[in-house]
Amino acid sequence: MVTDAAQNTASQQVTVSTSTLDTTPPVVRAAGFLVALNSDGTRTIEAADVDYGSTDACSGIASLRIKPSTFTCTNVGPNQVTLTVTDNAGNSANETVTVVVVDNTAPVVVADATCTSNLASQSGNGPTGASFSNENLLQAYPNPVTDQATVSFRPTQAGTAQVKIYNQLGVMVATLYDGQVEGNRLYNVTLNGQPLASGVYNCQLITNGKVTNQRLLVSK
Fold it and tell me: How far apart are CA 176 and CA 203, in angstroms?
């Protein structure tokens, strides 16, 4: 609208178009977990198993992909899995987490009929139970924790072990295990997430002076 000195006015309507290019990648939120092989010695997981709420600010999420997604007896132990999130504008981001594959047909991690040859080749000079790593295993599932979670740990040597939970301030909020352990045996303990506030916690395994840490996410 234009007004002259004599207060005469005139106006014209026009159309203004805006165009926004989305160049912001999605925010990936992923967490590892522990998974057991099926009776045929294989297990396939989905992207939703490791994703816990990835988001995109503008165009929305178009796809979630993980690699690798299928595991066999040769994968028993910790595996690095990458979650890739792509939005509708073609932007993508990824995060790598650890998926621990176990053969849980027995309380001790030993080979079953399907996995005997593969696991035996990894057993080294340890006891009868096959050891799939020279590092302590510590994993919680599901992770993030909403109500309860199972914390699994496998010490490489016999002795004493402690499993404790610490908050972000370094304050111990729970002791899940404190006692004797056998080497290369898989132990499962329960974490009650109900009294814990939402946030990031550290699950710590101490065995014979060796410390192993695992990040825990509590989401209410």
Answer: 9
Residues 138-176: tens digit of each pLDDT? 888 888 888 899 999 989 889 999 999 998 878 899 999
Contact status, residue 100 vs residue 137, Cβ threshold 8 Å: yes
Domain-located, residue 14:
no
Tokens of 175: 């002791």
C-alpha 140/C-alpha 149 separation (Å) is 6
E-assigned strand segments in 88-186: 92-102, 137-141, 148-154, 159-166, 172-181
Yes or no: say if 186 and 105 are a contact pair by the CB < 8 Å rule.
no
- 108-to-17, 134, 193 alpha-carbon distances in Å: 66, 16, 26
CA distance 141 to 151: 7
pLDDT tens readout for residues 97-117: 888 887 754 333 333 334 543
Domain that holds residue 52: 23-133
- 36: domain CATH number is 2.60.40.10
Q: Is residue 170 part of a domain?
A: yes
User: Where is average pLDDT lowest: 7-11, 61-65, 84-88, 168-172?
Assistant: 168-172
CATH code of the domain covering residue 199? 2.60.40.1930
